[in-house]
Amino acid sequence: MAAADLATVVDVQSRAEAQLTPEQQARAAVLVGDASAIIRARVPDLSDPPPATAPGVIATAVLRALASPPDGNKSETVGGHSRTAAHEGGGLYLTDDELDLLRPPAPAPRGAFSIWTA
Description:
Blueprint lengths: L8 H7 L6 H21 L11 H14 L7 E4 L2 E4 L11 H5 L18
Helix pairs in contact: 1-3, 2-3
Organism: Saccharothrix saharensis
Protein name: Gp19/Gp15/Gp42-like protein
């Protein structure tokens, strides 16, 4: 049985600047599932329930993927307007900072320590 997605298309839409088309909503649904799987693979100690940051992280990654050129171009120019993908090849990816928002916090140091002097 597949694990539940960590976000929804509604989470993505609520963070989008414009209304997603039906085609974008369908693609967003697939990308939400893909991003959820990537997170579970890259953050094996993901808490249950997942952190409150999960929907925002996934929505950001999905919107980034939706905005990347569909043909995989790294950059494009139309008239006086040009756009460069922030990630080689565009597509769905999560940054290290985004993954850090999903990882459990490091435990506080405990116990005694020593300071060596010379």
